Amino acid sequence: MIPYLLFPRFFKWLGLGLVVAGFGTVALMQPDVDDFSDGLGLLVQIMILAGLLFISCARETYEDEFIKYYRLVSLQWAVLLLIVLRVSYKVMAWYTADAGWTPHFQVNALLIFYLAFFYYQLHLKDKLMNLFGKKEDQKR
Amino acid sequence: MKNSIKVERAKKSITQEELAQKLNVSRQSINAIETGKFIPSTVLALKIARYFKVSVHDIFELEKED
Q1: Residue A2: pLDDT above 80?
Q2: Could you read off the pLDDT tens digit of each residue along chain B, which spans 66 residues?
Q3: A58 has which bridge partners?
Q4: A134 in contact with B at a CB cutoff of 8 Å?
């Protein structure tokens, strides 16, 4: 990811607020998000998409070359996973002749996969390594 | 590529976190470089060498497969 396309740090919290508000609206008011004539549904879609984009593209405290490397790897995994899932769904739709298998997830899913990979590598990987014995030296 | 950042850190008695702050990078970066998972850029390698007051060759060393 090109560093100059990143948003300031506070966009992470702004994005989180938008995503929570978006899902909250869906849970409370249940708008039809697939119906573009439904203004509220469209607003919810925009809130969630913009929120995910803001979280994904917000700067980290130290936006250094290693974080950039994590961003690139996470994006590659996210794209790969999205393609594999979409192709799998399409194969299932063809195999079962059931249109219910048609994949509806697109950009939102890509951003969610990206965030999952990125934050796993950034915050969880070391902790899990430590938990399962591969203790990494972080002290002296 | 091998490196002796851990040794240099031990000589100075500083943690990865402290070194990261001095170099203005993340702690994860220092950890990944130390464990050989990530090769730093020329700029960062020079900054590390400058911080420890040694040459880049004293810290980073090519291996046979490099």
Answers
A1: no
A2: 889 999 999 999 999 999 999 999 988 899 999 988 899 999 999 999 999 999 999 999 888 887
A3: A7
A4: no
Is any Cβ of chain B less than 8 angstroms from the Cβ of A109? no
B49/chain A closest Cα distance in angstroms: 17
As a whole number of Å, the end-to-end CA separation of chain B is 7
ipTM score of the complex?
0.79
Of residues A139 and B23, more confidence is placed in B23
Maximum distance among all alpha carbons in chain A? Answer: 61
**Axis-axis angle for helices B27-34, A65-96 (nearest 10):** 90
Determine the Cα–Cα distance for residues B5 and B48; give it in Å rounded to an integer.
Answer: 8
**pTM of the predicted model as reported, rounded to 2 decimal places:** 0.81
| Contact list, B16 vs chain A (CB under 8 Å) | 137-139
Task: Give contacts of B 3-62 with A, CB under 8 A.
Answer: 6, 9-10, 13, 15-17, 20, 24-29, 31-35, 38, 40-41, 44
Chain B residues within an 8 Å CB radius of A139: 15-16
